[in-house]
Amino acid sequence: MLGVDVLERSGFSAIKGKRIGLLTHAAGVNRRGESTVDVLRRAPGVRLVALFAPEHGLYGTGEAGKNLLDSVDSRTGLPVYSLYGKSKDRKPTKMMLAGLDALVIDLQDIGVRSYTFSSAMLYAMESCFQNNVEVIVLDRPNPLGGLKVDGPPMDKTLMSYVGAFRVPYVHGLTIGELARLAAATPGALAEPEAVRLKGRLTVVPMQGWRRSMRWPDTGLKFVPTSPFVQDFFACVGYAMTGLGCEIGGFTHGNASTRPFVAFRGKTSEQLQKELEALKLPGLVFVRTSPPVAGRKPSTEVQIEVANWAAWQPTDLSFYMMRLACRWNAQNPFATAPADKISMFNKLTGSETWYASLSHDGARVNVEGFLADWRQQARVFQQQSRRFWLYPE
Question: If we measure between CA atoms, which residue out of 31, 40, 107 comes closest to residue 76?
């Protein structure tokens, strides 16, 4: 049972008698596939008066990185406030929150730090705490499960909307657990500590979810969270290749093939040979030629996870970066435009990594960095247990 299902079964006790806003998107549905918007609109004793939308919009069709305007939802007639609009701070304003007793947040995250729905939640929490509006998070599964923690932590100097939490790149927490971490951790919010301490947070947990569950284990239908994340395997691929395709010439599969799971670089034969030589735990690399409407067939390398227990989600991206340096006459990370470098650093979260990569990328000690990050990830996971809502 998802958080919204538990809320409904309780008779909507957490929101009864309140005027509420709802921050959600197309993947915000109950276990029967009904939109949380509709569930709350029919809830007895509850007044849903405003909708709030993250990146990609209320219906998940907006392009990545494209600002969206406030609007009126044609289906419900409710105002829709875009939290990914022209305002650079991406927070609900005092005007947007006026008259609300609580903001309900029902966002399906994918378990990867740079995916912006957790940032939308955090920024909304900050504004609500500042304006004395209660925050109620309806919890949802982490598609990658709650036991995989991997990748570089976030340097404080690089924090941004694509890195709002100081957690490993794959963090192993649900969105409700991330909210608990933010509300309990000094300095986690951009607002003064007094604001964090007076903030009101309620997390409605799931029932029946365990940390060992990946999305297919839940029995739930996966609703696309964004145009390129259409299924569980895109979540897996996002964690594995998203960083590796930022700079260096690799491209991941488009929406007609397998986003983030299939990718290209030089010839598919060369790419497969190089990747297999890495002997990455749990991964198999297969050359495929999927049909793509309107284009000539081309061969790409598809990644398959053959052993989930051995799988280390982010390793592949960092080996891809070293390979890109070996395959290019000039170091692509040293010669990239300043805006590309800035975004790359915000996504990876490590200034030390970029310094080493840009200095001598073809010989950068990937193995040493990965070993160090794994140790830090183990420490984080142990420390984060106090925010866990679910057993292993």
Answer: 40
Which run of H or of E encompasses 79? strand 79-82
Query: 130-162 pLDDT, tens per residue?
Result: 999 999 999 999 999 999 999 999 999 999 999
Helices marked H in the chain — which ranges? 3-9, 36-41, 94-97, 117-130, 175-184, 193-198, 215-218, 232-241, 268-277, 315-327, 332-335, 338-348, 351-360, 366-384
Element holding 135 (H helix, E strand): strand 134-138
Best CA proximity match to 178, nearest among 198, 157, 154, 195: 154
Identify the CATH number of the domain defined by range 3-139+174-209: 3.40.50.12170
Instruction: Report the pLDDT averaged over residues 235-247.
Output: 95
Which 3 state secondary structure label does DSSP give 119?
helix
Residue 250 has pLDDT above 70, yes or no: yes
Mean pLDDT value of segment 289-298: 69
Locate the domains of the chain by residue range: 3-139+174-209, 232-366
CA dist., res. 202 & res. 211, Å (int): 21
User: What is the SS3 string spanning 319-348?
Assistant: HHHHHHHHHCCCCHHHHCCHHHHHHHHHHH
Do the domains spanning 3-139+174-209 and 232-366 agree at the CATH topology level? no
What is 232-366's CATH topology?
Answer: Aspartate Aminotransferase, domain 1 (3.90.1150)
